[in-house]
Amino acid sequence: MHWRYYLPVSLLLLIAVACDKQGKGEESAILERTDQYKTAYNQKDIKAIGALWAQDGEFVRPDLGVIHEGRDAIEKAYSYAFAKGGDAKIELKVNNIAFPEPGSAVQSGVATLTKGGQEISKTVYKAVFEKNDGKWLIAKVSEIEQGDAPTNYEHLKELEWMIGNWIDEDEESENSLEFSWDRYKNFITQKFTLVSEGVFQLEGRQLIAWDPSQERIRSWVFDSDGGFGEGIWHKKGDSWVVETSHTLADGSKASATNIYTPIDKDTYRWESTGREVGGELLPDIEPVTVKRVKG
């Protein structure tokens, strides 16, 4: 083929850069429209919301089996929602913006409604924008309300007394512990830090969870030395007994039985028995009292 059938590389690069800048400019315009929507929604400005929609826009609500067609119907839907929902506020997380063809954009994201600082609903949405007389307008919005996330709280709630900050200390060492729920109460995360005579020694994390396949509570721990392990939990009387096995940083194996016994809401007793490292038995760790850090 003759060379004149090819554009110069420099011209191709210029075209690519120009297209990229144009794409980013259009994306910024879509995000600006999204911010305008959020502001109008939180101010309960129905006319400002309506002005962001195309005259023949569609608002699809599969959760209610309803489609609001046309700007007037959409404004009425918002009016009803605001009267019913009170002072609910909206937050929008944009996940993606695509331009399938010139003058058309598709945005996907998550809309979260809060009231009094508490989340009341979360919705996945897809919004189609169309450019009309140089302005991006909302042509269609489809949303799907997310159901409540599954939770294993019922299986873990007996360990809820652990949640909070704790300390085990004596004249020589200090072990700080923090237990917290994940968002949906499917896991309890423990962070621990050991300091001896004012010098940092070790830190790590433990994840406590319900294993539905084995129908029991299990845990996994990782420390700053590179060691890791797991445990199997069961309740015995008032105590929680944890059968643990570990791989230490040097590759050797270790095991122990750790026992947590709550005394009251601010105190629990911890001890470790049957300790073994590399096939050698170690002395038990006598019960120590762990206290809740208040304030």
TrEMBL record:
Organism domain of life: Bacteria
Listed InterPro entries: DUF4440, NTF2-like_dom_sf, Steroid_delta5-4_isomerase
One Pfam assignment: DUF4440
Domain DUF4440: 30-138
NCBIfam families linked to this entry: SgcJ/EcaC family oxidoreductase
Identification of the protein by name: Conserved putative secreted protein
